[in-house]
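Backbones bend. To wit:
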Amino acid sequence: MNFLRTLSTRRLLLLLAAVVVLGIGAGAIAMAATGGSGPTPPPKPLDQALQDALNAPEPAGITARIKFTNRLFPSGALLGGAADPLMAGASGRLWANKDGGRLELQSDAGDAQIVWNKTDVTVFDASRNTVYHATLPPEQPGEQEQAVPSLDQIDRFLSDLGARVTISPAQPDNVGGQPAYSVTLSPKHDGGLLGSAQLAWDAAQGVPLRVAIYAQGSSSPVLELEVTDISYGSVPDSDVQVSPPADAKTIDLGTLSHDHGTGGESQVSGLDAVRAAVDFPVAAPDTLVGLPRQDVRLVGSSDSKSVLITYGQGLGAIIVVEHKADDAQSGGVLSNLPSVALDGVAGHELATQLGTVVTWQRDGVGYVLGGSLPPAAAEAAARELNK
């Protein structure tokens, strides 16, 4: 993660948007971009369009109006029906300069504000008058901005990615009134419930303008973050660094470390070693609903050990987390999820268009099972694990 600090604001925004798309690796290449009216850029090969975006001059600042769409969670599925802008979708504004940024979201469900700089990130939930604060890892001495990859390097990346997903050409588009290019990706196998993912960026500035995720068989995005209007120019710090109300409750999330295996995290892996390291029985059959067990490892700090088990590969994998049950965990947010019967054990289920999560407790052990699969398949896996 150190290299993220060496990227300019525009390149970082582009990379973050690309990570969302490529990390989800979604599909349905035939689904066309839904760009707005207005001028479009000339046709261009994808590798050249990507390199030109990364080579574009860094804008002094960005001011934009944005729209966030979230159809992922069924109505009332979380928090007993309560919602907020991040769960229900919202519109808002974005301000960013070389030192940080501010994103404000407003909706009928409430308002939220995300503020970041080189050292901190805060999320203010106005409906709960609560601030969530995290510290970014310190910049390492001698870090410099990474060089833009060559066309050969981009071609190799696209070739490697193309072994797993189908990638569309760069499509001339118009997003937020700006000439843009868009690209769509489709998984070649193990796509789970994911349909398609699209990324569009400003053809001249290289700034991401739209990220959208589609479920299989759906023509409307499940998740979408789109710029509806954007301008480039100097943005004063007073527009970016805004403090939350003084009376807001603050929850400190600590430092977002980029160093794996430090800060108390365990490096224990393998079924026998993990079973020897915890004080609760670990259920980890060789297969789960036909998927082979791929990995077993210990995660979390020494005083909150959990076991992470993976079945299958790619987006079609099933993830299981097991931990020592706590009576306090039987309530709270998870207890507000819809109930599901698992052969004599009561559980709770969150079913979305992109996947399902099932949670339950049995014999002093808590289980969370999730994957990009429909509810019936997730429940079948939970029952098999519960035997």
Summary: The mean pLDDT is 81. The helical segments are 9-24, 46-55, 85-88, 151-162, 237-240, 271-277, 375-385. Residues 2-255 form a domain with the outer membrane lipoprotein receptor (LolB), chain A fold (CATH 2.50.20.10). The two ends are 41 Å apart (CA to CA).
